[in-house]
Design brief:
This protein is mostly helical. It has 2 domains: 2-337, Glycosyltransferase (Alpha/alpha barrel), CATH 1.50.10; 341-416, Arc Repressor Mutant, subunit A (Orthogonal Bundle). 58% of the residues lie in helices and 2% in strands. The chain contains 18 helices and 4 strands. The strands form 2 sheets. Strands 1-2 form a two-stranded antiparallel ribbon. Helix 17 (369-377) packs across helix 18 (387-403). The longest helix is centred in the C-terminal third of the chain and has 28 residues, at 311-338. The radius of gyration is 23 Å and the shape is elongated.
Length: 423
């Protein structure tokens, strides 16, 4: 499992562009996926999420470069709700003043643009359940209970006419697999009871759609007649949270299908015989990481069942622990990379100065070199620094940190960091 995740991280690392972004090649665009999901900003966010799950310090420069690219794309109004949602999930990892400004702008834009009914608009349709899914998956981390409750009520009132699941728009006659998985996960993120009749009925619908190879189809919008890694990953995430047993045969068969679909280069295609894509690889890695966490914490899951009313609630609590573990491991990942003497320098003095520079930039938005020297001098250890005689020394420190992608410089020669590596 962990080997598969590491291979996927290598797949992303090798594809990163010089400006820190990820992009699609023309031959990778298939199956009528919505154009907004082909944007470099969304692909970059998907790559960062995957790299963070690998928990390997060697990917810190890739993550930092990717975060810097995300922060450079700051025209929030025109980005679209899907893009804002992806960006929020990445920026919440950063914990810097510089990143927080954009983070809360994105959050406020999503909250402000929720319709009175509780959904988010999607041209040319009234709404799109995939858009809603991504919005809710990002807002769930923040204190906006009224927003989540309004969307939950909307979803519960807009099942497909067949009453077994959900379609793409909320005004559908027929339930479809991927949109039903989207809706289930959104409902759970909005606080719906995982053992409720409507969710359990949707679970039975999804169970009936599993193919003999262990996978699930997506939808009539993309692929409806064969197993896809995307739909399988989402269905499995839902099943681990709404099934009595998160390790039942349907789930185990689905995990085997996903593992069998990984390509030698580490990525996952949507369907067998095709090339890998960013979004399929990201969703599969996320599913495998959750499954591995559940497997590693079987005893914890059994213990949680003693304190809740159902097995599904115990699984939800463990999933919340998984979310917290990602934040903790990400912070640890950054610290391990930043505090390695081989990275920060070869002498104690240079290491101390560079650590102090990172600490200063984590507290303050952006600083020029002279301002950094002034801030350094506030620490008694560096009170001896002089702008005239030590400018070259500090410039060397900053250039060194830039070469590691721990510090960045804008066009006005002001320095900043994109993640608080010493928090």
């Amino acid at each position: 499992m962990l080997t598969a995740i590491e291979k996927a991280a290598n797949y992303f690392a090798e594809r990163q562009n010089d400006n820190g972004s990820w992009t699609l090649k023309p031959e990778e665009i298939k199956h009528n996926e919505p154009l907004e999901y082909q944007k470099p900003l969304i692909l970059t966010c998907e790559a960062i999420e995957t790299l963070s799950l690998a928990k390997n310090p060697k990917f810190v420069p890739n993550i930092a470069k990717g975060m810097n690219y995300c922060l450079s794309q700051a025209d929030e109004i025109t980005q679209g709700f899907e893009t804002l949602s992806h960006k929020i999930k990445v920026l919440r990892l950063a914990k810097t003043t510089y990143a927080s400004k954009q983070l809360y702008e994105c959050i406020n834009l999503l909250i402000k643009n929720q319709s009175k009914e509780g959904f988010w608009p999607h041209f040319p349709m009234k709404t799109y359940n995939l858009t809603n899914f991504y919005v809710i998956s990002s807002l769930k981390y923040f204190d906006c209970p009224a927003v989540l409750a309004k969307h939950k009520d909307w979803l519960l009132k807009h099942v497909a006419t067949d009453k077994t699941g959900w379609g793409p728009t909320g005004e559908d006659s027929e339930s479809q697999v991927s949109f039903t998985a989207n809706a289930i996960l959104s409902l759970l993120n909005c606080g719906e009871n995982p053992a409720s009749p409507i969710i359990q009925k949707a679970r039975k619908f999804l169970e009936s759609k599993q193919f003999s190879d262990g996978g699930w189809p997506s939808s009539k919008t993309t692929v409806a007649d064969k197993s896809t890694t995307y739909a399988t990953a989402l269905v499995l995430q839902a099943f681990m949270l709404i099934s009595e047993n998160p390790f039942n045969k349907k789930i185990e068969d689905g995990i085997k299908f996903l593992l069998s679909m990984q390509l030698p280069n580490g990525g996952w295609p949507l369907v067998k015989g095709e090339k890998p894509t960013c979004y399929t690889t990201m969703h599969v890695v996320n599913t495998l990481a959750i499954y591995d966490f559940f497997k590693q914490n079987k005893n914890r899951l059994a213990n949680l069942r003693n304190y809740v009313t159902s097995s599904q609630f115990a699984a939800l609590l463990l999933a919340n622990e998984f979310e917290r573990s990602i934040l903790i491991s990400f912070d640890s990942l950054l610290k391990n990379a930043a505090l390695t003497s081989n990275m920060l320098g070869s002498t104690a003095d240079s290491i101390q100065r560079r650590i102090e520079i990172i600490k200063i930039l984590s507290r303050i938005d952006m600083l020029g070199m002279a301002e950094i020297i002034d801030a350094l001098k506030e620490n008694p250890k560096f009170a001896h620094l002089n702008k005239r005689s030590h400018m070259t020394l500090i410039k060397n420190d900053l250039d060194y940190l830039k070469s590691l992608h721990l510090v960045f410089e804008d066009d006005n020669y002001r320095y900043f960091i994109v993640a608080d590596i010493l928090s």
